[in-house]
Amino acid sequence: MAIINMPALSPTMTEGKLAKWLVRTGDTVASGDVIAEIETDKALMEVEALDDGVMASILVAEGSDAVPVGTPIAEILGEGEESMLAKETSPPESEPVEPAPAVETPAAKQPKSAPVKEEKAKPIAADHNVKRIFASPLAKRIAGQKNIDLAAVSGSGPHGRIIKADIASLPDGFGADGIRADMAASSGAMVNQNMNAYQPQSDLLPVTSTRKVIATRLQQSMQDAPHFYLNMDIELDQLIAMRKSMNAALPDDQKISINDMIIKCAAATLIKVPGVNSSWEGEHIRQWHHADIAVAVALEAGLVTPIVWGADIMSLSSVSAKMKELVSKAQSGKLKLDEFSGGSFTISNLGMYGISSFTAVINPPHGAILAIGAGREMPVVKDGAVTVATVMTATLSGDHRVIDGAVGAEWMAAFKTYVENPVLALI
Questions:
Q1: The whole model's pTM is what?
Q2: Which helix (H) or strand (E) holds 18?
Q3: For the chain, does the N or the C end have fewer beta carbons within 10 angstroms?
């Protein structure tokens, strides 16, 4: 017999949301099978079965929020084993039980003459023979409200995941009763509306566990860490040329990104100027020996920062491969605890969105974070003549308890040298 408890999937996690059951009572499972999706304080993550057996009891309903870590959520029984937990937690069969807000005990059996009322939060899992549908928790909620069949929706998110934007404009009942977008468009065009009858509309969106933790940590960072900011324009032409030359000889799945090269340049700089590669610990300042760089990855559920451990001693190709692996795991909710907890420095790159420059909030307990803007063509003066160069703006946010302004300036100057002469970062 194996009791599955709500796991602690991050160091700061005290409770989680049981977002989805992927199995149902009576299903046969094997050790390592993914049985549920848990929304943690970091991201949406998967829970695996620890033993072979049969799902004897599902104790927490799908959608239950604020389930404390350590709470039994399911029971797996081997051949011939009898469920003791289900007996202890089940109510008498003669007394129907209203489901609790977060933790649900197995439902009592109803007399045949009494119809069973389906509860909104009843655990529902995909059959093993049915293709699994990947959708965000918000998209699932909206789909349920609008009676939309998610199997009829094409997802535009990472790896085909269905997100809010995919279903927001779909009519009620889409896919469930044959309604399609073209039919809705032909019958429901909003033409010649009487604007006198206009009423503002809005949605109240739930604050996820991930968003709560992001809000708490960043608010604390701004309150506790005295931020200072240094920005510098850096030319990218040599880095771009070097990347182009390398990628010409690499297969598509191994090509190097600009961000990969920035990570490598930042790693070299952290070793050259170790004062920035530090963390505030109250009575001590911890100075790290290696560049363990957390890289901000934006997900629909919030921000996650997987870590490239030892980026300073890795080859550029290894950094690139590791980033591809970490981003894929982050998007599928499969990051392990040691892949997003800790680190010594953070990079946040919004250049792909066309953002020219920004300031980032320090990711505690790191002493600094580097914000990278988009490369853009600008006129620059070289040897007294005006020419055009591709320039990006990099902004360092530093914790003044750990880093002095002069040390931060030294770091930025060294980073500029490595980016404008990227071969130096590879030596």
A1: 0.62
A2: strand 15-21
A3: C
